[in-house]
Design goal:
The chain is of the alpha+beta class. About 20% of the residues lie in helices and about 35% in strands.
Length: about 260
């Protein structure tokens, strides 16, 4: 997961709105979003190399997402960052309790950003950014730096989401997918994360498309005030060396009602 926008308790009809892109190398084997055979209460995609996930939600309303923190020259770490979400979703821990546990073993992982939520709390934590932060109300954006870092695609996408939330009482999911499909590369304001200006520009759109790396899926999650969940995933196939395109996707949709434990 490399781009995440979410609004918590910031819309009259929906208490949670999530719009997210997962960017990954095309060679990395993945399953599309589904309820897991080994944990039937968990809905999300699955990384087949390590068994973790980048984004998921449970039938009791707990959810989580992880993004990598972009940095160069880091050493190999023993634990997969996708396990941070998997381990939370299959547990019965609350968000704050789980973040506290992660905080004490954060050095096992390469740089990460973590959003962990239960029914009452949303918590952000990065092992590159200090103490955990409550995000239980408001509109937020996260990419491969700290929460709400002013990267061009983050500022642009967050402003578009705020506009959608203000204008659309019904929240048409397609408007959120349009936000996620923006392929415009930034001309100015690029971050300097040590990968060079050309690579920074390539990675600057919301939807990334290159020879070997890009946006593998887009996900919209809507949770209304009656706890009805709508989970829609667009996955983007790559074949014969052709990079993904937001116009060419396979769609999967899931609906369920949250039941608190």
């Amino acid at each position: 997961m490399c781009l995440l926008f979410f609004a918590a308790n910031n819309h009259p009809s929906y208490r949670l709105v999530i719009a997210a892109n997962r960017d990954e190398y095309y060679r990395r084997a993945t399953t599309t979003a589904r309820f897991w055979d080994d944990a039937p209460h968990v809905l999300g995609g699955r990384d087949l190399e390590q068994g973790g996930t980048w984004l998921g939600i449970t039938r009791d309303g707990r959810w989580g997402a992880v993004t990598n923190y972009r940095e160069v020259g880091t050493t190999q770490h023993s634990s997969s960052r996708g396990h941070l979400i998997r381990d939370y979703l299959v547990s019965e821990l609350g968000a704050e309790h789980y973040i506290d546990k992660v905080h004490h073993r954060a050095d096992r992982y390469a740089g990460f950003n973590l959003i962990i939520a239960d029914y009452d709390h949303v918590v952000y934590y990065s092992n590159r950014g200090g103490d955990p932060q409550l995000c239980s109300e408001g509109v937020y954006g996260l990419s491969n730096h700290l929460l709400d870092s002013p990267w061009p695609k983050l500022k642009k996408g967050k402003n578009r989401l705020i506009k959608i939330l203000t204008q659309d009482d019904d929240l048409n999911a397609q408007r959120l997918f349009t936000l996620l499909s923006d392929q415009h590369q930034a001309a100015t304001g690029l971050p300097d994360t040590g990968i060079g200006e050309e690579r920074e520009r390539l990675l600057s759109p919301a939807f990334i498309s290159s020879r070997d790396y890009g946006t593998r899926s887009s996900t919209v999650i809507l949770v209304d005030q009656e706890n009805q969940v709508q989970f829609i995933e667009h996955s983007f196939p790559t074949s014969a060396g052709r990079p993904p395109s937001p116009e060419n996707f396979q769609s999967a949709s899931h609906r369920f009602t949250i039941h608190r434990l």
